[in-house]
């Protein structure tokens, strides 16, 4: 039997295919174009995220102020009509406490916001200073809105509008923290 | 293809890893991936230089012409940058980049097909997708060389070319190619058979 038979067409094709170069360097301008595109996208994304965070902060401030005014007016009107003498006396310690369901909700919100805050603090160095400033400003607005709603609730614990405002302010604070931690890459 | 072939580097393949990188380079690559995930553009540039040659070779053979190949390389690495936080390392980075490149090509073909469908009834992908460098099959005039084979591959009908490049050149299994291209393995085998017949005839093997 002849061991040196001519290769078949399939074998010759396989041999040629195996010799094809596995790497063909692209021209240098390809990376230049990629880098330019990524830089543009990154700048646009940062601009958009800062805008969203700032908008969230403004929304908290605006809705908080508006709803607090509405809620307090509703409360004052009810007190004037129903029990006028009660409106003038100072609230008792019992009245200053939040309803149990709100206390429980607040504890949950505090746990969540603290966890996100820790995460954000760990990744803070990877965020642009301007983004950190926007986040902090939004968080201060959120905290102020929460405190405002809380004080109003302590005086009027049964006010459903104030209760909704109180929880929605916490939700918005959580939203700001979530977005900010998503912006910051993991370390 | 000739201008692209002047940029050919020697093959750097490793039997131990599909990326063709040595183990030390792979360890370094993991670090680069982590840094790039955190937005480090310099780390991503190094990853680009490690992989661009293989991605470009694949794109060149899939597209069959250099201009679209360069655009595909750009699309691939731009998408890779955005998707890197989701890269879990379940496949090698090379395989992951190749998948992105194939998807980018298929997406372009779908767009082309939609445009073509506006003016004509589309029945066969291969009828719509013309080989960019030649209207028909290129018969080499000299002996069968690597350059002739590159030209012949570039002149294959696009679907057949994809199957041949991914399976015969890049070494992906039938199942992997089917997963990348969305083809049934039976169709893939038929395309591979057709590719071999066309290449053998074109190269007079």
Notes on the structure:
The complex is a heterodimer of chains A (187) and B (205). Chain A is mainly α. Chain A is built from 7 helices and no strands. In chain A, helix 2 packs parallel to helix 6 and helix 2 packs antiparallel against helix 7 (160-183). The model of chain A is unreliable at 80-95 (pLDDT under 50). By secondary structure, chain B is mostly helical. Helix content of chain B is 66%, strand content 0%. Chain B contains 10 helices and no strands. In chain B, helix 3 crosses helix 8 (158-169) and helix 8 crosses helix 10. The interface between A and B is large, with 30 and 44 residues.
Query: Helical region count of chain B?
Result: 10
- Low-pLDDT stretches of chain A are 80-95
- Helix/strand-derived class of chain B? mainly alpha
Number of helices of chain A: 7
What fraction of residues of chain B sit in β-strands?
A: under 5%
Q: Which bin fits the share of residues in helices of chain A?
A: over 70%
Q: For this structure, what is the CATH class of the largest domain in chain B?
A: Mainly Alpha
Sequence of secondary-structure elements of chain A: HHHHHHH
Distance between the termini of chain B: 21 Å
Please describe the biggest sheet of chain B, giving its number of strands, its sense, and whether it closes into a barrel: none
Taken from the alpha-carbon principal axes, the silhouette of chain A is elongated
Find the count of extended strands of chain B (DSSP E, 2+ residues): 0
Q: Biggest protein-protein interface?
A: A-B, 30 and 44 residues
Give a short account of the largest sheet of chain A. Answer: none
Give a quick precis of the structure.
The complex is a heterodimer of chains A (187) and B (205). Chain A is mainly alpha-helical.
């Amino acid at each position: 039997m002849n061991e040196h038979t001519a290769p078949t067409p399939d074998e010759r094709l396989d041999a040629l295919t195996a010799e094809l170069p596995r790497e063909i360097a692209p021209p240098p301008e390809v990376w230049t174009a990629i880098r330019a595109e990524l830089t543009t996208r990154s700048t646009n994304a940062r601009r958009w995220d800062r805008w969203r965070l700032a908008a969230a902060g403004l929304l908290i401030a605006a809705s908080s102020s508006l709803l607090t005014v509405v809620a307090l007016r509703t409360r004052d009107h009810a007190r004037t009509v129903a029990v006028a003498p009660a409106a003038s006396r100072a609230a008792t310690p019992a009245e200053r406490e939040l309803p149990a369901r709100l206390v429980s909700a607040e504890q949950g919100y505090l746990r969540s916001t603290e966890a996100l805050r820790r995460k954000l603090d760990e990744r803070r160095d990877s965020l642009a200073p301007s983004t950190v400033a926007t986040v902090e400003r939004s968080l201060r607005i959120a905290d102020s809105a929460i405190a405002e709603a809380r004080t109003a609730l302590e005086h009027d614990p049964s006010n459903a509008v104030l209760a909704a405002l109180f929880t929605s302010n916490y939700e918005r604070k959580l939203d700001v923290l979530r977005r900010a931690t998503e912006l910051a890459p993991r370390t | 293809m000739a201008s692209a072939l002047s940029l050919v580097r020697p093959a750097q393949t490793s039997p131990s890893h599909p990326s063709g990188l040595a183990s030390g380079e792979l360890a370094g690559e993991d670090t680069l991936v982590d840094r790039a995930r955190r937005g480090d553009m310099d780390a991503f540039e190094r990853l680009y230089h490690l992989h661009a040659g293989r991605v470009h070779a694949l794109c060149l053979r899939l597209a069959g012409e250099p201009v679209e190949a360069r655009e595909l390389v750009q699309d691939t690495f731009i998408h890779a940058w955005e998707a890197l936080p989701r890269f879990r390392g379940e496949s090698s980075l090379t395989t992951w980049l190749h998948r992105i490149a194939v998807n980018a090509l298929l997406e372009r073909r779908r767009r082309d097909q939609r445009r073509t469908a506006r003016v004509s009834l589309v029945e066969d992908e291969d009828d719509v997708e013309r080989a960019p460098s030649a209207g028909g099959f290129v018969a080499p005039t000299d002996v069968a060389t690597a350059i002739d084979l590159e030209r012949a591959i570039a002149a294959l009908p696009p679907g057949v070319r994809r199957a041949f490049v991914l399976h015969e050149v890049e070494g992906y299994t039938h199942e992997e190619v089917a997963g990348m291209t969305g083809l049934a393995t039976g169709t893939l085998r038929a395309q591979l058979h057709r590719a071999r017949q066309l290449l053998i005839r074109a190269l007079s093997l």
